[in-house]
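Notes from hallway chat w/ T.B., transcribed later so I don't forget. T.B. wanted the structure written out for a chain they're using in a teaching module, and asked if we could keep both sequence and structure tokens in one place. Agreed to drop them here.
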Amino acid sequence: MKLDLAIRQSRSIHITLAIVLLPIAVAGVVYTFLGSAAIVVTLRQGYFPLGFGSAILDVVLGVVFIGADSVMVLQVLEANRRLKTLREDPNRTVRDLPAPFQPSVFGPYH
């Protein structure tokens, strides 16, 4: 029962973080497309202006932003899988899924 509650709490934290990071991930998609377009235009022109480094940085940041939200969504799916396994067979060994801001990660709050 305690493990079930811990996994449910972890899932709710990951869902919240995924929702909070969603607008940032959408901005990451925009950064990635605009940065990629700037790189393609620069390569077609044959020279590298000062904005080329900025375009590369935009692509890298875009991928990081998208990746952060993707990790949160994958953690939610993993929590769902562990809860389903625990529900189907309560005697089966299921590991805890710690989340950021969860007491099990940093120790008990006093």
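Follow-up for T.B.: The chain has a mean pLDDT of 86. Might be a good example for the class.
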